[in-house]
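My main concern about presentation is that the manuscript never shows what a single data entry looks like. An entry of this sort, consisting of the sequence and the corresponding C-alpha cells, reads as follows:
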Amino acid sequence: MLGAAAEEPKALFQQAIQIMEKDPANRDINKAIFLLKHATAAWQAASSKDPDYVAALDYLAVSLMVQLRENAAEQDENKLADFGEWIKRAAPYTKRALEISESNPATDPDVLALALELEAQLEGQQGRGAALWDRAAKIRAQRVAALSPKELIVGPIVRAGEANAVGPRSISIPRPTYTRIALLAQYTGVVQLKAVVGVDGKAHNIELVRGLGFGLDEQAAKALLLSRFEPGQKDGKPVPTGGDLEVKFQLN
C-alpha cells in the first residue's frame, strides 16, 4: 500500500525519478512504472494540466520502452525490444501528453517539444510523425539560438577551405550533459551545429543544423559555448571563421 503522503502525484513522480536515476543494475523499473501510473491516474482524475503531469506521462512512455528492453535482454542479451509492443503500450500516454501541452498556451517550449518528439517516434519520424518532428525541431532550433544570441562579428567571416585560410582547431570541448530522459532512453548520436569561431577562440552565433531532440540539442550548444579553440587564420592572421561543428553524445 502507498502511504497517504505518497498518494500525492508529485511525490509519486519524484520517487519514480529517483528510482530511474539509479544504476540500471540496481534499478527497479517495474516499481517506477507502478508509481508513474498511479501519479498520472491521479492527475487525470483531477483533469490537471500541471507541467509535471505532462513530464510524468513522457517518463512513463520512455520507462515502458526500458522495461521491454530489459525484459528482452533477460531472455537473450542480443534480443531487441519489440517496438510495436512499445507503441501499443505507450501511445495513450504520449497522446495525452501532447494533447495537454497543445491545449495550454503557457506550456514550456521544452515540454511541448518533448511531447512532439515522443509522439513523432510512435507515428514514425519518416512517416505520419514527420510533421510533428519538424515542429519539435523548430522549437529546439529557437532554444539553441536563444542560448547564443546573434552578435556583430568584427571583420569579414572566413570560411574554412578558402584560399590561404586555415580553420580553427579545438583546444577543449567539454563532454555534453545528458538530459534525464535522454539518458533513460539511452539516446546516442551527433548534434550538428554551425557557428562562428571568433578571434577570442570562442563559439558565437550558434545555430542548429540537425538535432537529436530530447533536450540534447540545447545541451550540445551549451557544451559548444564552453569550448575553446585556436582561432582560424587567413594569410597568417587570426580571423573569425564560420563553419559546421559536431557534438557527440555517447553513453560510454
About this structure: The CA atoms of residues 150 and 205 lie 5 Å apart.
